[in-house]
Write a structure and sequence with these properties.
Layout: H1 24-32, E1 38-41, H2 55-75, E2 79-85, H3 108-123, E3 128-132, E4 135-136, H4 143-153, E5 156-160, E6 164-165, E7 168-169, H5 170-182, E8 191-194, E9 201-202, H6 203-213, E10 219-223, H7 243-249, H8 256-267
Parallel strand pairs: 1-2, 2-3, 3-8, 4-7, 5-10
Antiparallel strand pairs: 6-9
Helix pairs in contact: 1-2, 2-3
Protein backbone atom coordinates (compact mmCIF):
# COMPACT_ATOMS: atom_id res chain seq x y z
CA UNK A 1 0.00 0.00 0.00
CA UNK A 2 2.81 2.41 0.87
CA UNK A 3 5.28 1.48 -1.87
CA UNK A 4 3.66 3.59 -4.67
CA UNK A 5 4.27 6.70 -2.55
CA UNK A 6 8.03 6.14 -2.93
CA UNK A 7 8.66 5.81 -6.69
CA UNK A 8 12.37 6.38 -6.20
CA UNK A 9 12.70 3.09 -4.36
CA UNK A 10 12.41 -0.48 -5.60
CA UNK A 11 10.72 -2.77 -3.12
CA UNK A 12 11.22 -6.52 -2.86
CA UNK A 13 8.40 -8.11 -0.88
CA UNK A 14 9.23 -11.69 0.01
CA UNK A 15 7.31 -14.57 1.52
CA UNK A 16 8.61 -17.43 3.62
CA UNK A 17 8.62 -19.56 0.48
CA UNK A 18 10.89 -17.09 -1.31
CA UNK A 19 13.25 -16.24 1.56
CA UNK A 20 13.12 -18.42 4.65
CA UNK A 21 15.51 -16.84 7.13
CA UNK A 22 16.01 -20.12 8.98
CA UNK A 23 17.97 -21.33 5.92
CA UNK A 24 21.16 -19.22 5.87
CA UNK A 25 22.53 -20.52 2.55
CA UNK A 26 19.35 -19.73 0.62
CA UNK A 27 19.04 -16.34 2.33
CA UNK A 28 22.66 -15.49 1.57
CA UNK A 29 22.20 -16.45 -2.09
CA UNK A 30 19.13 -14.20 -2.33
CA UNK A 31 21.13 -11.21 -1.06
CA UNK A 32 24.17 -11.97 -3.18
CA UNK A 33 22.08 -12.01 -6.35
CA UNK A 34 20.69 -8.53 -5.67
CA UNK A 35 21.85 -5.11 -4.58
CA UNK A 36 19.86 -4.46 -1.41
CA UNK A 37 20.37 -1.25 0.57
CA UNK A 38 17.92 -1.94 3.40
CA UNK A 39 16.42 -5.11 4.82
CA UNK A 40 13.28 -4.64 6.93
CA UNK A 41 12.89 -7.87 8.88
CA UNK A 42 9.30 -8.41 10.00
CA UNK A 43 9.63 -12.20 10.25
CA UNK A 44 9.01 -13.54 13.74
CA UNK A 45 7.57 -16.31 15.85
CA UNK A 46 4.64 -14.43 17.40
CA UNK A 47 2.53 -17.15 19.06
CA UNK A 48 3.18 -15.79 22.55
CA UNK A 49 1.41 -18.56 24.46
CA UNK A 50 2.68 -21.41 22.29
CA UNK A 51 6.23 -20.18 22.80
CA UNK A 52 6.05 -21.33 26.42
CA UNK A 53 6.12 -24.95 25.21
CA UNK A 54 7.90 -24.32 21.89
CA UNK A 55 10.91 -22.48 23.29
CA UNK A 56 13.33 -23.96 20.76
CA UNK A 57 11.26 -22.79 17.78
CA UNK A 58 10.74 -19.33 19.27
CA UNK A 59 14.46 -18.80 19.88
CA UNK A 60 15.43 -20.29 16.53
CA UNK A 61 13.26 -17.83 14.58
CA UNK A 62 13.37 -14.78 16.86
CA UNK A 63 17.04 -14.95 17.80
CA UNK A 64 19.31 -17.31 15.87
CA UNK A 65 17.76 -16.66 12.45
CA UNK A 66 17.98 -12.93 13.18
CA UNK A 67 21.68 -13.34 13.97
CA UNK A 68 22.10 -15.06 10.61
CA UNK A 69 20.31 -12.40 8.59
CA UNK A 70 22.20 -9.66 10.46
CA UNK A 71 25.48 -11.31 9.49
CA UNK A 72 24.34 -11.56 5.86
CA UNK A 73 23.32 -7.89 5.88
CA UNK A 74 26.73 -6.92 7.27
CA UNK A 75 28.56 -8.85 4.55
CA UNK A 76 26.42 -7.30 1.81
CA UNK A 77 26.57 -3.71 3.08
CA UNK A 78 22.82 -3.81 3.73
CA UNK A 79 21.37 -1.96 6.70
CA UNK A 80 19.12 -4.22 8.77
CA UNK A 81 15.95 -2.70 10.23
CA UNK A 82 14.60 -5.30 12.63
CA UNK A 83 11.18 -5.19 14.30
CA UNK A 84 11.08 -6.05 18.00
CA UNK A 85 8.54 -5.79 20.78
CA UNK A 86 7.41 -4.21 24.04
CA UNK A 87 7.52 -7.72 25.54
CA UNK A 88 11.24 -7.27 26.25
CA UNK A 89 10.07 -5.35 29.36
CA UNK A 90 8.41 -6.77 32.48
CA UNK A 91 5.56 -4.25 32.56
CA UNK A 92 6.22 -2.86 36.05
CA UNK A 93 7.10 0.68 34.95
CA UNK A 94 4.95 3.62 35.93
CA UNK A 95 5.86 5.66 32.87
CA UNK A 96 6.55 5.00 29.16
CA UNK A 97 9.63 2.88 28.55
CA UNK A 98 12.69 4.53 27.03
CA UNK A 99 15.25 2.74 24.89
CA UNK A 100 17.76 2.94 27.75
CA UNK A 101 15.49 1.24 30.31
CA UNK A 102 16.52 -2.20 31.52
CA UNK A 103 14.93 -5.13 29.72
CA UNK A 104 13.39 -7.91 31.80
CA UNK A 105 11.06 -10.11 29.72
CA UNK A 106 8.59 -12.29 31.60
CA UNK A 107 7.76 -14.73 28.78
CA UNK A 108 9.68 -17.04 26.46
CA UNK A 109 8.54 -14.93 23.53
CA UNK A 110 9.91 -11.78 25.15
CA UNK A 111 13.19 -13.47 26.02
CA UNK A 112 13.61 -14.75 22.44
CA UNK A 113 12.99 -11.27 21.01
CA UNK A 114 15.42 -9.69 23.45
CA UNK A 115 18.12 -12.17 22.46
CA UNK A 116 17.36 -11.41 18.80
CA UNK A 117 18.02 -7.72 19.45
CA UNK A 118 21.36 -8.51 21.05
CA UNK A 119 22.49 -10.80 18.23
CA UNK A 120 21.33 -8.40 15.51
CA UNK A 121 23.37 -5.52 16.92
CA UNK A 122 26.36 -7.77 17.53
CA UNK A 123 26.46 -9.11 13.97
CA UNK A 124 25.40 -5.89 12.23
CA UNK A 125 26.52 -2.84 14.24
CA UNK A 126 24.72 -0.45 11.86
CA UNK A 127 21.38 -2.22 12.45
CA UNK A 128 18.29 -0.43 13.69
CA UNK A 129 15.98 -2.17 16.14
CA UNK A 130 12.43 -0.82 16.33
CA UNK A 131 10.40 -1.94 19.31
CA UNK A 132 6.69 -1.58 18.78
CA UNK A 133 3.56 -2.60 20.68
CA UNK A 134 -0.02 -3.79 20.27
CA UNK A 135 0.39 -3.94 16.50
CA UNK A 136 -2.68 -4.32 14.28
CA UNK A 137 -3.60 -3.79 10.62
CA UNK A 138 -6.24 -4.55 8.02
CA UNK A 139 -4.33 -7.72 7.12
CA UNK A 140 -4.14 -11.15 8.78
CA UNK A 141 -5.05 -11.91 12.38
CA UNK A 142 -4.78 -9.25 15.07
CA UNK A 143 -6.78 -7.78 17.95
CA UNK A 144 -8.87 -5.41 15.83
CA UNK A 145 -9.95 -8.09 13.35
CA UNK A 146 -10.61 -10.56 16.17
CA UNK A 147 -12.85 -8.03 17.94
CA UNK A 148 -14.74 -7.30 14.72
CA UNK A 149 -15.39 -11.02 14.25
CA UNK A 150 -16.42 -11.65 17.86
CA UNK A 151 -18.71 -8.63 17.93
CA UNK A 152 -20.58 -10.08 14.97
CA UNK A 153 -20.76 -13.59 16.43
CA UNK A 154 -21.55 -12.90 20.09
CA UNK A 155 -23.96 -10.81 22.13
CA UNK A 156 -21.28 -10.04 24.72
CA UNK A 157 -17.53 -10.46 25.14
CA UNK A 158 -15.09 -10.11 28.04
CA UNK A 159 -11.92 -8.08 27.59
CA UNK A 160 -9.04 -7.51 30.01
CA UNK A 161 -8.95 -4.00 31.49
CA UNK A 162 -5.76 -4.02 33.59
CA UNK A 163 -3.10 -4.29 30.87
CA UNK A 164 -2.08 -0.87 29.53
CA UNK A 165 -0.38 0.04 26.28
CA UNK A 166 -0.56 2.01 23.04
CA UNK A 167 -2.23 0.33 20.04
CA UNK A 168 -0.11 0.76 16.93
CA UNK A 169 -1.40 0.77 13.36
CA UNK A 170 1.04 -1.15 11.16
CA UNK A 171 0.59 1.40 8.36
CA UNK A 172 1.92 4.12 10.68
CA UNK A 173 4.92 1.97 11.59
CA UNK A 174 5.63 1.34 7.91
CA UNK A 175 5.45 5.08 7.19
CA UNK A 176 7.83 5.75 10.09
CA UNK A 177 10.35 3.24 8.74
CA UNK A 178 10.25 4.83 5.30
CA UNK A 179 10.73 8.26 6.86
CA UNK A 180 13.82 6.95 8.62
CA UNK A 181 15.19 5.68 5.31
CA UNK A 182 14.39 8.71 3.15
CA UNK A 183 15.81 11.05 5.78
CA UNK A 184 19.25 9.73 4.87
CA UNK A 185 20.10 9.55 8.57
CA UNK A 186 19.44 5.88 9.32
CA UNK A 187 22.97 4.60 8.72
CA UNK A 188 24.40 7.40 10.85
CA UNK A 189 22.02 6.62 13.72
CA UNK A 190 21.90 2.86 14.35
CA UNK A 191 20.64 1.32 17.57
CA UNK A 192 17.33 0.83 19.34
CA UNK A 193 14.22 2.97 18.83
CA UNK A 194 10.68 2.82 20.17
CA UNK A 195 7.56 3.44 18.10
CA UNK A 196 3.92 3.15 19.06
CA UNK A 197 0.94 5.37 18.40
CA UNK A 198 0.34 8.21 20.85
CA UNK A 199 -1.95 7.82 23.83
CA UNK A 200 -2.43 5.18 26.50
CA UNK A 201 -5.34 2.77 26.85
CA UNK A 202 -6.15 -0.79 27.91
CA UNK A 203 -7.50 -3.74 25.95
CA UNK A 204 -11.06 -3.17 27.21
CA UNK A 205 -11.08 0.51 26.20
CA UNK A 206 -9.53 -0.46 22.87
CA UNK A 207 -12.38 -2.92 22.29
CA UNK A 208 -14.98 -0.32 23.31
CA UNK A 209 -13.51 2.11 20.77
CA UNK A 210 -13.85 -0.54 18.05
CA UNK A 211 -17.46 -1.18 19.14
CA UNK A 212 -18.35 2.52 18.96
CA UNK A 213 -16.68 3.14 15.61
CA UNK A 214 -18.50 0.17 14.05
CA UNK A 215 -21.87 0.78 15.73
CA UNK A 216 -21.82 -2.73 17.16
CA UNK A 217 -24.54 -3.85 19.58
CA UNK A 218 -22.23 -6.32 21.27
CA UNK A 219 -21.77 -5.76 25.02
CA UNK A 220 -18.12 -5.44 26.06
CA UNK A 221 -17.46 -6.41 29.67
CA UNK A 222 -14.24 -5.43 31.51
CA UNK A 223 -12.44 -8.21 33.40
CA UNK A 224 -9.12 -8.41 35.25
CA UNK A 225 -6.23 -10.46 33.90
CA UNK A 226 -6.79 -12.94 36.73
CA UNK A 227 -10.07 -13.95 35.08
CA UNK A 228 -8.38 -14.59 31.73
CA UNK A 229 -5.37 -16.80 32.50
CA UNK A 230 -2.92 -17.51 29.67
CA UNK A 231 0.16 -19.76 29.46
CA UNK A 232 2.43 -16.74 28.93
CA UNK A 233 2.50 -13.78 31.30
CA UNK A 234 1.84 -10.39 29.68
CA UNK A 235 3.34 -7.07 30.75
CA UNK A 236 0.76 -5.10 32.74
CA UNK A 237 2.16 -1.85 31.35
CA UNK A 238 4.03 -1.71 28.05
CA UNK A 239 3.75 1.86 26.79
CA UNK A 240 6.81 2.88 24.76
CA UNK A 241 8.29 6.38 24.68
CA UNK A 242 8.63 7.40 21.00
CA UNK A 243 10.54 10.64 21.67
CA UNK A 244 13.90 9.40 20.34
CA UNK A 245 12.60 8.31 16.93
CA UNK A 246 10.64 11.55 16.54
CA UNK A 247 13.60 13.75 17.39
CA UNK A 248 16.14 11.78 15.35
CA UNK A 249 14.15 11.22 12.17
CA UNK A 250 11.19 13.59 12.40
CA UNK A 251 8.64 10.78 12.09
CA UNK A 252 4.96 11.34 12.76
CA UNK A 253 3.33 9.57 15.71
CA UNK A 254 -0.47 9.79 15.25
CA UNK A 255 -2.93 9.30 18.09
CA UNK A 256 -4.07 5.67 18.38
CA UNK A 257 -7.77 6.54 18.12
CA UNK A 258 -7.29 8.44 14.86
CA UNK A 259 -5.23 5.57 13.44
CA UNK A 260 -7.89 3.06 14.48
CA UNK A 261 -10.47 5.04 12.49
CA UNK A 262 -8.24 4.90 9.41
CA UNK A 263 -7.75 1.17 9.77
CA UNK A 264 -11.47 0.52 10.11
CA UNK A 265 -12.13 2.65 7.03
CA UNK A 266 -9.59 0.55 5.17
CA UNK A 267 -11.36 -2.64 6.28
CA UNK A 268 -14.66 -1.31 4.88
Amino acid sequence: MLAPSFPGYRFLFTTKDEVDIIHPVETSEYFSARSIDYCINCAAYTAVDNAETEKENAFFINAYAVACIADICHKNNTQLIHISTDYVFDGTAGQPYKETDKTAPVSVYGKSKMHGEELALRNEPSAIIIRTAWLYSSFKNNFVKTMLRLMKEKESINVVNDQFGSPTYAADLAAAIMQMIVSGKSKENPGIYHYNNAGITNWYEFAVAIKKLTDSNCIVNPIPTSQYPTPAKRPAYSVLDSTKIKETFGVAVPDWEESLKRCLEQLK
